[in-house]
Design goal:
α2 (82-95) crosses α6 (179-185) and α6 (179-185) packs across α8. α8 links the parallel β10 (202-206) and β11 (229-235). By secondary structure, the protein is an alpha/beta fold. It has 2 domains: 53-80 and 181-345, Rossmann fold (3-Layer(aba) Sandwich), CATH 3.40.50; 82-180, 3-Layer(aba) Sandwich (Rossmann fold). It has helices at 57-63, 82-95, 108-120, 134-142, 153-168, 179-185, 187-195, 211-223, 240-246, 272-281, 291-305, 311-325, and strands at 4-6, 13-15, 31-32, 53-55, 67-71, 100-104, 123-129, 146-150, 171-172, 202-206, 229-235, 286-289, 334-338. The chain has 12 helices and 13 strands. The strands form 3 sheets. It has a 6-stranded mixed beta sheet, with helices on both faces. A 4-stranded parallel beta sheet has the order 8-7-6-9, with helices on both faces. It binds zinc ion (ZN). Zinc ion binds at residues 7, 9-10, 12, 23, 25-26, 28. Residues 7, 9-10, 12, 23, 25-26, 28 line the site of zinc ion.
């Protein structure tokens, strides 16, 4: 069956191509059409997916929730949830015999794209903000990708990357935009059905571009199943999705006050409206949490549960007490947090309060 891209905003259908990320009619990022499921094979495979789900009993007790679970996404081959998306995207590029690509990332996506490119024999250029954690940058370079360090934050890295692609006629393999990347992240939803019975009432995502949140939404839709309530959790220092959702103007980003949750420091997520749609359709919420709470949750996960994760992942956990207070979550509800990135390659917050 021929694979199509669909625009969920204006309903345009376009033949799938690695050259295309946006809708030709309305310019919104596209999805692989749900009419052609399972049409993209993961030929390039590093053993991604099938991550364990474990119960967080001690932290749950502290929050006053009795049914809290985590899916250990950081156990993917490159240490983050990005690998399912990269597997599908790089497989599509490999099938089309693409030999070079460029991508911009705060670290995890860059490392993931670099690893799968190495496996496929593709020459990868990864554009990272100068502030990206040095271990992540080292990881990208170690896969033999060419690292381009860009001053001025995440947004500037994306602009430089896009310009580089135009100037050098190289494929822009953006994990933020590519429909193939989102297609890969849908596997998260398929796995959940195997992992948990009953499925969770609530799933809280640390959200920058929202690729895992959107993949989960699309995955449940593919299966024709009721989707859990989906929540976007952002840092108070960079909360464009929360701003749009709540109608209140919150911080987007300031280079002087960068969040420690670098993976979700995205000022202008290209799929912002699609994230809002997924959250509203599933009756979820978008909330912002403080830097202090993010640090505290990161250390609590290590001290109470033995899990070493990056600050970005801890942001989702910090959303739970807030949602309990506001009555969106009840103490006996089943809650799932994807722990998206490893603590081995990011800041370990010095906050043990
Ligand atoms: Zn469109």
């Amino acid at each position: 069956m021929k694979t199509y891209f669909e625009c969920i905003d204006c309903k345009t259908e376009i033949p799938a191509s690695v050259m295309v990320n946006r809708c030709s009619s309305c310019n919104n990022p596209l999805f692989v059409s749900t009419k052609t499921p399972d049409s993209v094979d993961n030929i390039i495979n590093l053993g991604q997916g099938n991550t364990p789900v474990i119960r967080l009993k001690r932290i749950g007790l502290e929050f006053g929730v009795s049914d809290l679970w985590a899916k250990l996404e950081y156990l993917n081959p490159t240490g983050s949830f990005k690998d399912r998306g990269s597997a599908t995207l790089i497989s599509a590029l490999h099938t089309m015999k693409i030999k070079s690509l460029a991508e911009d990332s705060s670290g995890n996506a860059g490392a993931s794209i670099a690893a799968y490119s190495a496996k496929a024999g593709i020459n990868a250029h990864i554009f990272v903000p100068a502030s990206a954690p040095s271990v992540k940058v080292l990881q990208i370079a170690f896969y033999n990708a060419e690292v381009h360090r860009i001053e001025g934050g995440r947004e500037q890295a994306a602009i430089s990357c896009s310009r580089f692609c135009t100037n050098h006629d190289i494929i822009y393999a953006s994990h933020n935009l590519s429909p193939f990347f989102i297609e890969g992240t849908k596997q998260f939803a398929y796995e959940l059905i195997q992992d948990m019975d009953p499925i969770p009432d609530h799933i809280l995502f640390p959200t920058g571009n929202g690729s895992l949140l959107l993949g989960t939404w699309r995955g449940f839709s593919d299966m024709g199943l009721h989707c859990p309530k989906l929540y976007a959790v952002q840092s108070e220092l960079c909360a464009p999705i929360v701003s749009q959702f709540s109608g209140k103007e919150l911080a987007r980003h300031s280079p002087k006050t960068q969040t420690i949750a670098g993976g979700i420091a995205v000022e202008n997520p290209p799929r912002l409206n699609q994230c809002i749609k997924a959250i509203k359709t599933t009756k979820g919420q978008a909330i912002a949490v403080s830097e202090n709470n993010i640090s505290t949750m990161q250390s609590k996960l290590a001290r109470l549960e033995g899990l070493l994760i990056e600050p970005t992942s801890a942001a989702a956990l910090a959303g739970i007490p807030k949602l309990l207070d506001q009555g969106y979550i009840s103490p006996s509800d089943r809650i799932l947090i994807p722990l998206t990135g490893s603590g081995f390659k990011d800041t370990l917050a010095d906050n043990t309060s």
